[in-house]
Design brief:
Number of helices: 6
Mean pLDDT: 78
Structural class: alpha+beta
Number of strands: 9
Distance between the termini: 47 Å
Largest sheet: 7 strands, antiparallel
Length: about 180
């Protein structure tokens, strides 16, 4: 099964990743986030642990340029300090998202190009819907977002599988490079 998953994300090049070899990490994550995690997600996180990448998710149902959602860094999984959920997936300054703004079944797994966390939300589905920081009114908001929260978050796809399938390298088209 792991080899099949490896084929599903082989096209995603991640620099500086370090494989997580802790055999207990997935069980700890599932207990701390109170949800079973999809095997494609856990396999991806173990193999692409803590890496840097330049990819974007192309939303298949939105027009350009509103259809591009960037991913820049995979968060590190591993046991740090204690067995609490906030120490298992490390996202430095973004711990307050998990502690104050999002429910236990919402897992930050990456950062976008502006250092906003990208979440996998298991509150309504066992597949986990991907949530990003965005204000596009064409996309649904998570139900756990309170009106008092100044941040805009939106669902961009219904599963981690769909997310992986729609990731493409973020490369500048010829002629669109930043001037020196």
């Amino acid at each position: 099964m792991a080899e099949l998953h490896q084929e599903r994300f082989r096209h995603i090049v991640v620099e500086g990743a370090s494989r997580c070899d802790d055999p207990d990490i997935i069980g700890l994550l599932e207990r701390n986030f109170e949800t079973p995690l999809p095997s494609l997600f856990t396999d991806f996180m173990i193999k692409r642990n803590g890496g840097i990448l330049q990819y974007k998710f192309l939303h298949p149902r939105l027009p350009a340029p509103d259809n591009e959602f960037y991913i820049q860094r995979i968060l590190t999984i591993g046991q740090h300090k204690s067995n609490s959920a906030n120490d298992l997936i490390v996202y430095s300054d973004y711990q307050h998202f998990n502690e104050k703004l999002v429910p236990r079944k919402v897992v930050a797994f990456a950062l976008d190009g502006r250092d906003w966390p990208i979440f996998l939300d298991f509150t309504e589905t066992p597949h986990g819907r991907v949530v990003v920081h965005d204000d596009c009114d064409l996309l649904p908001k998570p139900t756990w977002i309170r009106k008092s929260i100044a941040y805009e978050f939106r669902y961009i796809c219904d599963s981690f599988d769909e997310y992986i399938e729609n990731l493409v390298p973020d490369v500048d088209e010829p002629g669109n490079e930043d001037p020196i």
